Amino acid sequence: MLLSSARSTQQRNMAAIAFILTLRVDKAAGNVAAGNNKGEHAALCEFIAMAQQEVEAPHLESLDVEAYRRVHLLNLTLSDDDWINKFYTDKTRKTTKVSSAEAGLDDKGGKLHWDNWKWAAERLTAQPEDTKLKETGAMQLSGLAKKMAGVAIKGIAAKAAKLKDSFPEEALPADASKQAATAAAKKLRDAAFGGVDTALSTLTQATTFGGTPANNRDVECKTQGPGKGTHTALAALACVCWQGNTNTVTHGVCNKAMEGQTGWNGNSNKPGTSDLIKLAKSCGPAGKRKVTAPRLRKAITSLRNLITGHDIGNHYLGTFITGGCSGSSDSGVCIEFTILASGTEDPLSKLPWIAKVEAAAAELEKLTQVSPKAQAINIQLAAAETEANQAVKRAAAEAEEIRKGNNNPTVATPALRKTICEAHNKSKTECLGAQCKWGGKKDDDGPCIVDESKVAEQTTQAGAGEKKDGAASTGCAKHGTKAECDADKKVDKQNCAWRKGKDNEPEPEKEMCRNGSFLVTKQLALMVSAFVALLF
After folding, report:
1. Which chain regions cross the lipid bilayer (predicted)?
2. Three-class DSSP category at 401
3. Domains of the chain, residue spans
4. What is this structure's pTM?
């Protein structure tokens, strides 16, 4: 059974090869033979079919507006009252202003961001309360916690705004994929039938040829002029399949369905509307296959590969014998690409309808290129929303630590030092009073940053508890062994820990007895004291 099947397959393959060789011999022989342009017919019919099929555009993610707006809602919630009140018609905050201009915010980013700011203002005072906003705890913050959270959120909001502004313009419409598919489909109909809204049932001689073909077939089916046979894919199909009025090809040069046509002879027997519809239908039913960018590119390449050169300096699509593309069996049934054989120019560039197909492919490929960027930005926006929510909770926790320590925190984290200084970006006096460093050129325009030299100096003085001669005198540093260090505790709370240093502690690589947590230095205490005094 298997041997018989293999033999049968081999016989079919040999028959196919023989048929192809026959076609090649016929094209090289003295006359155009039946079926010589079968390949050209199939290649052009692919464009006819795609003009009738559904275009499938790559899926595009729309901008995650919700995540972006949530960050800005937190930013507004944690802003000072003067800023918040700018968005409302009065201090009851029941009605938002209608425009950035009315709010006086055009020069503060309002022209770009008003829609999202207005949304945030409406959600802030919405009734019932915005559930997600309530869950963040931002509305319950006050004083130090609110100030610390506000500083953190401001940076996250700026980052979110940059992400939004970098979102691909092509992906901004909610129905971007649908729009691209519709635009590509219009281009394909225009390329095949001569009109963006022209279908197989509504095409005419004029739409197909771009006018009335008044000349003989060999004049209309050449690129120099250009001939009207180069106007659409269907016109090109007429040039490679429609016979002339003398020495016609028996049984049809493309397929038997086109046998018995009235020969194309100048202005008298040119293909009419009904003839062209019949020609298009010779391609068979369009089917339900989807049109994609790779399929369009493949169709263009397949057509290009069928174009052949000739020693007289022209290229041809279809069978050429001698003289011109008159449609007669002793001359040629073809499209002539005039005087192109000696150059490097792409012959298909002389067919205006091909440019429309390439534009349709580019329309779809553009979405393929921007899709990963759109997806990546949305992921980052979602992460920014999460980061903002966490920043609120972290600020509340750090503020609580400060309160528990009588406004003198016990953990000197770099993030806390940074937050305290950034809270004074608008005042040089307050910045210096908090023992920070002023980096602005104006007294009301920072930045206010951590003065690392002071932090390091105070850390050296207070972190280890040593005398000038290097001998440990107080604190955990006085314990010389791990056992002594572990024994230093109050009830069940460990005061000291045998460990390496962290942050700005001295000798960070050395294991020694250190404070259980990195005690705040005088520098930080002064910073916090000045900061807290402004808020409580």
Report:
1. none
2. helix
3. 28-52+199-350, 65-170+379-403, 414-533
4. 0.67
